């Protein structure tokens, strides 16, 4: 009997996890040995990550243990960083050694795209991973604690200004969820803060409407809701640089805030881009 084929799946995101579950249904145990490799030991349900940022959902509600998918199927799981793909020798390099394969599926997903804008990585909070949500949630609460005892009105209002760059699904949902958190929860426990005059949420978008990749009708609904929630939406506004506490735009404006969040989009994983394989237009 020929040995079972080694199937290696890189990435436990939506694509990788879905494939592992389908393989369990369609492969006999003696047909293939399947290994799932991911830098995290959980699948992150990114559509609800914004609710983790505001504390509406606990971390375990948006993180599904990948071993819960691999162990029942008799598959292997390796938590490690993928460092290289050797197509000629059919090996995957990881931080914990090489993994041979007969069949390879690359589903490593995307990474945050800063579009080469200076200061994004250093001075803006990302919203991509579970740790980002936890960091942002703690940051928001720390901001309110310090603002609650700030007696200078100008300094308090600057501290309570929140800028979100990028009005795609993440940016729109985060802006709306932050306002809900403030109006319905934080307002009750911070009586020294005027939640109508002290707080400002700015949502910056480079195109002429929010949710630019979606149906225009959804964009209109989202825009109306943001207006109702007192979120200031700045359309056709391109960011040129982000400094500590300052967002500079290409039209010369300088927006100050203690909290700057980057949700400006994603790009293909650099490792995927480096692999010599046919790719679609977007990588």
Question: Your description of this structure?
Answer:
The chain has two domains: 5-111 and 268-274, FAD/NAD(P)-binding domain (3-Layer(bba) Sandwich), CATH 3.50.50.60; 120-264, 3-Layer(bba) Sandwich (FAD/NAD(P)-binding domain), CATH 3.50.50.100. Helix content is 32%, strand content 28%. It contains nine helices and 19 strands. The strands form six sheets. Strands 11-18-12-13-14 form a five-stranded parallel β-sheet. The protein has a four-stranded parallel β-sheet with strand order 5-2-1-9, covered by helices on one side. A hairpin with a 2-residue loop joins strand 7 (91-94) and strand 8. The radius of gyration is 22 Å and the shape is elongated.
| Outline type | elongated
Tell me, what is the CATH class of the largest domain?
Answer: Alpha Beta
Helix content: 25-40%
Provide the low-confidence segments as ranges.
none
CATH-defined architecture of the largest domain: 3-Layer(bba) Sandwich
Give the biggest sheet. 5 strands, parallel
**Percentage of residues in DSSP E strands:** 25-35%
CATH fold category name of the largest domain: FAD/NAD(P)-binding domain
Give the termini distance in whole angstroms: 40 Å
How many beta strands in the DSSP annotation? 19
Strand order of the largest sheet: 11-18-12-13-14
Tell me the domain tally.
2
**Topology order in helix (H) and strand (E) letters:** EHEEHEHEEEEEEHEHHEHEHEEEEEEH
Quaternary organisation: single chain
Helix/strand class: alpha/beta
